[in-house]
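May I ask you for just one protein sequence along with its backbone structure tokens in two labelled lines?

_____
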Amino acid sequence: MINAVIFDFGNVLYSFRVMTFLEHLARRSTCTVPELLKLMPEISRLAVEYETGLITSDQFFQQITELARIRISRQEFIDSYCAIFTRIESTATLIRALKPRYRLGLLSNTNEWHFENCIRTVDVFPLFDAVTLSYKVHAMKPTAAIYADMLHKLGLEPGACLYIDDIPEYVQAARHLGMNAVTYTGHDALLRDLRAHQIEI
């Protein structure tokens, strides 16, 4: 029997568009958007370090602004960095529908600024019984440690949980640990998957 439903955040609860951030940076940089795109491997490396908690918010800000030759205030950087998200209303509605019957978890590869300025401010955030964040546990999906943290917080065995993520590799990692898991491709498909797992909606 499934007792808990665990949600990813990005592209499950909120979609995101990284180009929104890059376009804003380009307006404050001597680099054009195409030039910033060429820097994406290094920007992505710093983002992974930030999401794993290996560098602080201040270090991330300093290294990105130096790399991309940006003159921008810290607050404007934060605002543009957090403006990439768009709410997926159907998922928020689903979370409210599931809450009376199931324990709910949020499991996200994320960083301090995205958590503090977006994730924790969404109206359904208080409905989650357990929250696991990569930068807090110093581990990112698909490593086992981040899933284990969520299971520990819920106090449940893997088989009692259903995990939802848009990235198949992360879904497979959850299944490898014994969790039920489905790949999010859209709301209608998700509802079918939940019913297949005998989740009451």
Notes: The mean pLDDT is 96. The chain has two domains: 4-15+86-196, 18-81.
